[in-house]
From TrEMBL:
It comes from Pontibacter akesuensis. Keywords: ATP-binding, DNA-binding, Nucleotide-binding, Phosphoprotein, Transcription, Transcription regulation. The keyword Disulfide bond does not apply. Residues 152-381 form the Sigma-54 factor interaction domain. GO terms for biological process: phosphorelay signal transduction system; regulation of DNA-templated transcription. It comes from the Bacteria. GO terms for molecular function: ATP binding; sequence-specific DNA binding. The keyword Transferase does not apply. This is DNA-binding transcriptional response regulator, NtrC family, contains REC, AAA-type ATPase, and a Fis-type DNA-binding domains. Residues 7-126 form the Response regulatory domain. Gene3D superfamilies: 1.10.8.60, 3.40.50.2300, Homeodomain-like, P-loop containing nucleotide triphosphate hydrolases. The modification 4-aspartylphosphate is found at D56.
Amino acid sequence: MSKTACKVLVVDDEEDILLAGKLLLKQHFAVVKTTSDPYQIPALMQEHGFDVVLLDMNYSTGATSSKEGFHWLKQIQQLSPKTTVILMTAYGDIEMAVRALKEGATDFVLKPWQNEKLVAVLKTACQHGSASVKRSAEAAEQNNTAYHYDGFIGVSPAMQRVYQTIDKVAGTDANVLILGENGTGKEVAARALHRKSKRAGNVFEKVDLGAVSETLFESELFGHAKGSFTDAKEDRAGRLEAATGGSLFLDELGNLSLALQAKLLTVLQSRQVIRLGTNKPRPIDIRLICATNMPLYQMVREGSFRQDLLYRINTVEINLPPLRERREDIKLLAEHFLQVYRQKYDRAGLKLNADTMQRLSAYRWPGNIRELDHAMERAVILCDGNTLSPDDFYFAPDEDREQQRQESQGIADADYTLDTLEKMMVQKALVKHSGNITHAAKDLGITRTALYRRIEKHGL
């Protein structure tokens, strides 16, 4: 079994827990260290540079308040902001879990743990880095005008609608479909839904379906028995089983073939999985969150996505706007990323001038927030002076400038017929709302029936 390239520290006052944890985790992670003395944490952190710390919350005999755990959580955050901290206790409750997450922990584990769940939680932590880094960066920005909402930054009306939807649906177990272009924050939205849900104390399991091959799909999602195929050297739970009790985030859903869509639909309908090589159904209890940047509604019309699967996953839809449709947030995001990279690269005096901010605000950002993030990091690294100028940034070349020119001129220079204009507006509305007929019709100021007629009329 290949091990995850991750350094894990387990801190607990019970030697049995440490031994069990080390025996389990060393099978899955490159480096696993243990200590029963939390006062050894600073020295161990300095020596090994751990990626993840699995931290008990009580160390004194009979203690159940978790004060010690929160104390050491803060110490680890100060020593190494990039390190992910997962808290564990035998005396947990939802209130404590919520507090742990708010104070910077990435997840919360109850003892005695389930081996498969614990491994899944730690692997997720290793893959996605420290949530506490994001929270620290957000906390450092509280004095500016940016509006922070559980990983998001923005004050635009479009984002306010997103926040409101997340607040309404998070406390339920309704299936959620998140639509949006690459780089708009679909995973951020999924994690916000999980943190605000009743399942916040349990695992958040992410599966990138675009990275799972057809041959490994069933093994990866449903699990397998030892000997069920050539490399199946032991029984292994799939990602759906690992997510039981928590949230399952299926990213890049639109990449699934029709055959795999059928298999996924069967599991979602029955709420049970059968591992490869067995006949035994295993119940699953998950909160399903899906995301894609692909136009699922158009794919349904074209026959490349199952309509029954779409109905199963989209009890509630959240449409994340591209950055070009929330330009009032670009300044807030730019200042946020500047603050993050000033600290990271020790460039305390670095600032943005007015011309640079104007150029950032005018650019279309085809890669959305992710592109802005990377552009700011690159600019901070390469800037020679104390002021970031437009020349310090890389902007996608002439194609984007030409598109901006055409949009600024509008349609005044072209001789369009009314039919052409109507088709263009319907197309733009459908693209903007990722094929969602209800939202597109509302945007156009017509009924769903009228929009369907126009789609048929123009062959869209």
